[in-house]
């Protein structure tokens, strides 16, 4: 039987780790946003669509894990 202390410890560990990881995601998204500077980078609207379609798919996949749905791992590649 799980004690309240154990539940509390697991909850605290979850909160600590999730907050850190979500903040890391925010930092990476800010960094990705820096690539939108047309003075420094050349990209098409199609590139942007591909990028955000893949991000949206990954967010749905990750959300599905919390909803007990199966998922697959994938890596993003933007062909030049």
What can you tell me about this protein's structure?
The protein has 80 residues and is mostly helical. It folds into 2 domains: 1-37; 43-80. 66% of the residues lie in helices and 0% in strands. The protein has helices at residues 4-34, 45-66.
How would you describe this structure in keywords?
mainly alpha, single chain, 80 residues
Task: Annotate the secondary structure layout.
Blueprint: H1 4-34, H2 45-66
The oligomerization state is single chain
Specify Rg, calculated over alpha carbons.
18 Å
Given helix and strand content, the structural type is mainly alpha
Low-pLDDT windows of residues: none
N→C terminal distance: 56 Å
Profile the largest sheet. none
* Overall pLDDT level: 91
Proportion in β-strands? under 5%
**Judging from the principal axes of the Cα atoms, what is the shape?**
elongated
User: What is the overall number of helices?
Assistant: 2
- Give helix and strand order, one letter per element, not per position: HH
Could you say how many structural domains there are in total?
2
Helix content: 55-70%
Number of strands: 0
